[in-house]
Each structure stands twice: as C-alpha cells, then as structure tokens.
Amino acid sequence: MRRILIIDDEDDIREVAALSLEATAGWSITTASSGAEGIRMAVESDPKPEAILMDVMMPEMDGPTTFRKMQVTPGVAGIPVLLLTAKVQGVDQRRFAGLGFSAVLFKPFDPLTLASQIADVLGWKEPLAL
C-alpha cells in the first residue's frame, strides 16, 4: 500500500484529496495543515511517505519554502514532492518546474483521476483500486 502525505492549509482540500486517494487507489494517507507540521510528520513517520502532495500558498511557510527545507532534511530529502496549485500562469509554472518538484498538479483537481495522475508522474504501475 502506497503512503502519501498531503500538506495543505485548507481543510476541504486535504479532506477531498485524502478521501479520493484512499477510495480510488487504496493508499494510506496522512495529512498536515502547514509546512512545518508536514516536515515534522515526514521526519517522524515510520515508514516514511512515498510521496508528498503539497499546496503552494500556505500561511507562515509556503510550499516552495517547505520544499527547500525538506531537501536539506535527512530522511525526507529523497521523497518526491508534487505541488498542488491554483496558480496556472505560465510564469508560475516555469518557476515551480525549476525548483525540482516531481510534478505540478492543478486545482481544482478531479478526485476520480488524482491517484492516476500521481501514479503516472511517479511511474507507479500497479493497478488502482477502482
């Protein structure tokens, strides 16, 4: 079973994404409501998440800042991070792509296809639970 950490300050987004990934793929989901909480959860979890789905715009520490801190945190640095954003301007997409994220996914997302989008990007070939 795949393990995913979702980091988003919006309760509704965390809930919909978590339910979607659990229901359509059978993945184990943990959630965090801030970048700092997400880093702490990723460091402390055993086993580690296999991927992190993270929002861009969060108070206190945004997604790119959280990602940069994760990249220098032992045990967390190698985990693929997928950015979840409502920012679809070309300049934003290029900036995010240059930071080293595994992928940039867009809000609003389709709950029925979110798991397959993540699996495709990460090269996970096992069939989804649908």
From TrEMBL:
Domain of life: Bacteria
Domain Response regulatory: 3-122
4-aspartylphosphate modified-residue sites: D55
UniProt keyword annotations, A-Z: Phosphoprotein
Entry keyword annotation includes Phosphoprotein: yes
Alphabetical GO biological process terms: phosphorelay signal transduction system
TM helices/strands, residue ranges: none
Key word RNA-binding present: no
Record PANTHER family: CHEY SUBFAMILY, STRESS RESPONSE REGULATOR PROTEIN 1
Name under which the protein is recorded: Response regulator receiver domain protein (CheY)
Organism (species): Granulicella sibirica
